[in-house]
Every structure is written in C-alpha cells, then in structure tokens.
From TrEMBL:
Any Gene Ontology CC annotation: recycling endosome membrane
InterPro entries membership: Rab11-FIP3/4_dom (IPR057316), Rab11-interacting_regulator (IPR051977)
GO terms under biological process: endocytic recycling; regulation of cytokinesis
Originating organism: Nezara viridula
Protein name: Rab11-FIP3/4 domain-containing protein
Keywords: Coiled coil
Amino acid sequence: MVEDGDPPSLGPELEFDMWEGQFEFLGEAFPDIRGPGRKMKNGLKNGYKAKPEWFIELNEDVQMLQQQMSVLADNQTHSDERYTRAKQDNATLQARVLMLEEQLREVETRSEEKLAEQERRHKELVARVDREKQLQVENCAIRLQTLELENSTLREEASRCKAASDRLKVETARLEEQLNENEILITSLREEIANLREQERKSRETLQANQQVIEELSDEIERLRSEQRRTLAELDSRGPGICPSDHENLQSQFLALKEENSRLQEAHDEMQALLLTRSVEEGRSLLTGHQSLAAELEAMSQDENDRIMDPRSIYPLKRRRSRSDFEFWPQDMLYSSETTALIAILRGTVGRALLSILCK
C-alpha cells in the first residue's frame, strides 16, 4: 500500500522502490570497503544492517524477485497470447473488411443498376403519364366542347320552357278566370233551373186547376145541354101551348150559356197560347245558354227523367170529348207536345226539340 509521502507505485508486479540501501551485499566475498564505522541508533552500522538481518532480507528479496519474474513471465505469456489473438483478430477483421468492401462494391454495383433501372422506369412512367395527361387533356377538351354545346342547347330549351311556362301561366290564369265565370254561370243556371222547375210546378198546378175548372165547366155544359135537350123535348111534346115568356127565358139562358161557353173557350185558348209562348221562350233561352246545362241535366236521376218525360205524370187522363163538345183535346195535345219539347231541350236534344216546336 502506498502511504502519504511515498513515490507512486509502478504496478502490481513491481512493488519496490529503487531507493538507496534497498539491497545490501555482505559477506566474505564482499568486504566492507568503507571500513569501520560507527553504529547508528536504528541498528545500522556505517549505514548498513548487521549480517543476520540483511541475509534474511536478501532471501526474501530474492524470493520476491523470483515471484516478480514469474509474474513478468506470465504477463509476457499473456501479452504474447493477447498479441497473437489480436493478430488473428486483425487478420480476421482484415478479411472481413475485404469481404465487406467486396460486398460494398457489389451493393454499389447493384444499387447503380437498380438506380439506372428505376431511372429508366421513371422515365417510361413519366412518358406514359405525359401521354395519358395529353389524352386526358384532349378528352377534356372534347368533353368541354360537348358540354358547351349541351349547355347552349339547354339554355335554348330553358328559354323555350320559360316561354311555355309563361304561356301556361297566362293560359292557367285565363282558364281560372273562365272557370270562375263558368262556376258563376253554373250557379246562375242552377238558380234558373230551380226557378224554371218552380215555374213548371206552378204551371202544372195552374194547368191542373184550369183542367179541373174546364172539366167542371164541361160537366156543367153537358148538364145544361142535357137539360136543354130535355126542355126542348118537353116543348116539342107540349106543342104550341108553351108560354112565349118561358121560351124567351130558355132562349136567353141558352144564349147566356153559349156566351159563357165561348168566353171559357177563349180563356182556355189564351191560356194554352200563353203556356206555349212561355215554353218556346224558355226553350230558346236554354238554347242560347251554356253547354254544361245539358250535362247538368243529364246528371239528374233516371227516375226524374222518366217522370218528366211521361205526360201522364203531368196531366191526368181525361175522357175524350166529342167534336160537338168543347173540342179542347187537340189543344191539350198541342200543349203536351210543347211541354215534351221543352223537356227534350232540357235534356240536350236541342235541334230535334226545336224542330218539333216549329212543326207544331
């Protein structure tokens, strides 16, 4: 161990310092050339140790030197072995370096070849991309021209559609206005039809009342005629013995009854003419009416149409008089024909109904 103040150690194998007095040679072969000296306090004589002490120390030193030589020999052996191993490692490493250099050259060669191949492929790829790009540009140009043509066509079509839309809007507005007018007209026609039906109902009632009055008057006339015949028969049977005053009475009654019959006949004729005129006017007004009137009347049920077309539902059956009676049967038939014609007009058969009216 190195203490404070001692020189540094030279290594684990050399633990002795080279200081003066480390080795002391005593004996017969080595006389003390320094002569007698004085003995010092530390056991040394003239600076040297006594014989027994230095002999023992010499043996120890020799042994130590031998050990150090052995250590040095071992160290030399180890050094040689390390040198040999280092030399072998160096040779191995040199061979490996050569091999790696060869591999590096091969890698560089392959890399250059691969780089050249990649450059060639890249050039081909760039050329192909350029061709494809050129084709795409041409296709896009053609498609652009086509789209421009389609765009112009679509613009023209849009203009036409817009014009058609405007026309349709105007037409729609006109049709809506016409529809409103038609609805108003239909409403008025329905009201008119209702009024005509009411007038027809009133006319039926009036006709039935007149017919009843006519029948009553006919019965009264028949009764008076019977009474006249009976009176005349009685007068004939009585001969000239009848009183002139009674004869004048009967004659005045006969004349009064005849005048009453004529007056009733004229009233009946006037009523028939009035009904005929009204029927013709209503038919003409319906002829100039809206076309949807026939369709509206067609919407009536079949029972109502049959009931209207059946004269027996309007006028009851009457016993036909002789020609010597009031002779109102042809006029009654004429009125029935006019009523039938009016109903035919209401059902839409305009021309035929008008023809039947004119023929009558």
